[in-house]
Amino acid sequence: QKMEFISEDLASAVQPTDAQLQEYLERHADKFVRASRLTFQQVFFSGEKRGQDASRDAERLLAELQAGRGPANPLDAGDPTLLPAVMESASSQEIANTFGSEFAAKVEEAPVGQWAGVLESGYGLHLVRVDQRDAGAMPALAEIRPLVEREWASEQRNRINADLLDKLLAKYEVRVEGPQP
């Protein structure tokens, strides 16, 4: 523990340069990239309410909407549900939490600006219209500097601690006696 305290003191004394932080950000891009976000509307068709007709009704409405002949407000053409009719700027995880992961994956693939479907969720069938897709992006260092500094410092502490322990271990002979688990 004392060695860990010493290594933490050593690590906290080092202040990173902008170049070091930028390099860390690029090397660990997966930690910092912003997830893509979708704004979409959905029309729900209940299998419980419509039975076998749910799929047929959904496909018929989809054909009408794609041909430009659908109802003025397509959201009224579906069945009542507690699911949101519109999700704004939702991440894939938020969509998956609401509708399920398979549905979220299919919505991610849907074209922007046109009705698509018929998509299935654990609740029933859906038609969706993706109105906006914001691609995931890497934020600039200036936007997330405190977060990058914290992650960089953590990596430095771990590295310094491992180096100190390796140097100590090199000075001693370590024997483990007794039965091994």
Index terms:
181 residues, alpha+beta, 50% helix
Enumerate the strands of the largest sheet in spatial order, edge to edge or round the barrel: 2-1-4-3
Q: Major β-sheet, in short?
A: 4 strands, antiparallel
User: Strand fraction band?
Assistant: 15-25%
Q: Distance between termini?
A: 25 Å
Low-confidence stretches: none
The structure class reads alpha+beta
Radius of gyration of CA atoms, rounded to a whole number: 27 Å
How many alpha or pi helices? 8
Element-by-element helix/strand order:
HHHEHHEHHEEH
Q: So what's the overall shape?
A: elongated
Average predicted confidence as pLDDT: 86
Percent range for helical residues?
40-55%
Give the tally of β-strands: 4
Description:
This protein is of the alpha+beta class and 181 residues long. The protein has eight helices and four strands; from the N terminus they run αααβααβααββα. It has helices spanning 2-13, 18-27, 29-32, 47-50, 53-66, 92-99, 101-109, 141-170, and strands at 37-45, 86-91, 115-120, 125-134. The protein has a four-stranded antiparallel beta sheet. A hairpin with a 4-residue loop joins strand 3 (115-120) and strand 4. It is elongated, with a radius of gyration of 27 Å. The model has no long low-confidence stretch (mean pLDDT 86).
Brief summary:
It is built from 8 helices and 4 strands.
List the helices and strands and how they pair.
Layout lengths: L1 H12 L4 H10 L1 H4 L4 E9 L1 H4 L2 H14 L19 E6 H8 L1 H9 L5 E6 L4 E10 L6 H30 L11
Helix pairs in contact: 1-8, 2-8, 6-7
